[in-house]
Amino acid sequence: MEQRARLLRLQGEPATVWIRYNGPRRLGFYIQTITTPLILSSLVVLGVTMSWPAGESSLFELQLRETKAQDYDKEYLSLHGADFLRAELGVIRRALDLKQEDVLLDLGCGTGRITVALASSCRHIFAVDRSERSLAVLTERAAERGLSNVTIIHADTRYELPVDVPITKVLCVQLLQHLPRPEDRDSTLSLAAKRLSRGGRCVVINEMFGIPRKIRGKPKENAGVDTLYFLTFTPHEMRDMMRVAGFKPIRLMGCGLFYWTRYRLATHALVRLEEWASLVPGASWFAKFGAAVAIKA
After folding, report:
1. Angstrom distance (rounded) from CA 29 to CA 225
2. Helix axis angle, 72-80 relative to 132-144, nearest 10°?
3. CATH 3.40.640.10 fits 58-295, yes or no
4. Three-state SS sequence of 140-198
5. Is 55 exposed, middle or buried (0-12, 13-18, 19+ CB in 10 A)?
6. pLDDT at 9
7. For residues 27 and 19, is the Cβ–Cβ distance under 8 A?
8. Which distant-in-sequence residues (6+ apart) come within 8 Å of 116 by Cβ?
9. In this structure, what is the dihedral angle of CA atoms 159, 162, 168, 173, given to the nearest 10 degrees?
10. 103-107 vs 15-22, strand pairing mode
11. Are strands 196-207 and 289-295 parallel, antiparallel or unpaired?
């Protein structure tokens, strides 16, 4: 069992220590308040991290998204570049295999960057997010494009959704990586499986803890105080999450296999090649993101 502690206060008042422990099956927290003087020279430091309760982290994430809703798309574009956005959309289209008769459930749709891009490829989209201001941006986008087949739902994906029509496809892009509690990730996927028609397809995209991230020395998890919670996944973890939720994984695609080049050389060719290369076995170990594709058996 690994313990990591962060001393929040050392002088003038009792110190509170957050202890995070990683057991074989779960991640937990407890709090200990120290009222006696600390002799720092006697402490053995096992590792230092900045952690806070999952509930507070979740609330911080929501407040951040509410505050930045109007600027989110500009910041995302600045962070990843327009070429990756085109490559990403190509991988999503291939993974979902949308048909005109499909009804898509878009979980964690945010400001609707992907929602509006897919609207013309299916019969209807139910776009769900808990950020009211993000949904306001999506509402404007849909109106500007004259989209009549998008239903916007202000709700938390961890709980039952007010959707009473058969769903044939589910999409969840970069949502689970910001949910601190494993049970919340399980609930989101399990409820999606419950809504999905038998034989329907679910695509879940998250950032990967693959070879490039390991080489660069990037952490698997960022759970810092006053920072956005962030968790990356291995390909095995992605498949296991889908199985636990009741899906049958059929493939794991890479998304952003050429992300590290920033698509600077032969840009058009790399963007087109991305869609094909995403299907190569093992691609998710080398890509920025992974797309888990599963069906409801």
Report:
1. 14
2. 80
3. no
4. HHHHHCCCCCEEEEECCCCCCCCCCCCEEEEEEECCHHHCCCHHHHHHHHHHHHHHEEE
5. exposed
6. 31
7. no
8. 138, 141, 142, 145, 147, 150
9. -50
10. unpaired
11. antiparallel
Place of tokens 């769900």: 128
- The pLDDT assigned to 49 comes to 42
pTM over 0.85: no
**8 Å CB contact between 256 and 84:** yes
Instruction: Find the length of the chain.
Output: 297
Using CA atoms, how far apart are residues 61 and 178, in angstroms rounded to an integer?
8
Q: What's the pLDDT score for residue 51?
A: 56
* Alpha carbons 24 and 174: distance in angstroms, whole number: 25
User: What residue ranges of the chain have pLDDT lower than 50?
Assistant: 1-50
**Cα dist from 53 to 19, 35, 63, 79, 224, whole Å:** 11, 22, 16, 28, 10
Cα 287 to chain centroid, rounded: 15
For residues 281 and 134, give the distance between their C-alpha atoms in angstroms, rounded to a whole number.
Answer: 35
Q: What is the Cα–Cα distance from 41 to 131, expressed in whole angstroms? A: 46
C-alpha 105/C-alpha 47 separation (Å) is 41
**CA 119 to CA 123: how far, in whole Å?**
8
Whether 254 and 247 have beta carbons less than 8 Å apart is answered as: no
Are 181 and 206 in contact, with CB atoms under 8 Å apart? Answer: no
Contact 292, 204 (CB under 8 A): yes
- Distances 96 to 19, 68, 104, 130 between C-alpha atoms, Å: 41, 29, 9, 23
Strand-pair category, 150-154 with 124-129: parallel
**Residue with the two structure tokens 């296999």:** 257
Give the SS3 label for residue 268.
helix
User: Among 273, 118, 106, 97, which residue's Cα sits nearest to residue 200?
Assistant: 97
- Residue 250 tokens, joined: 């059929």
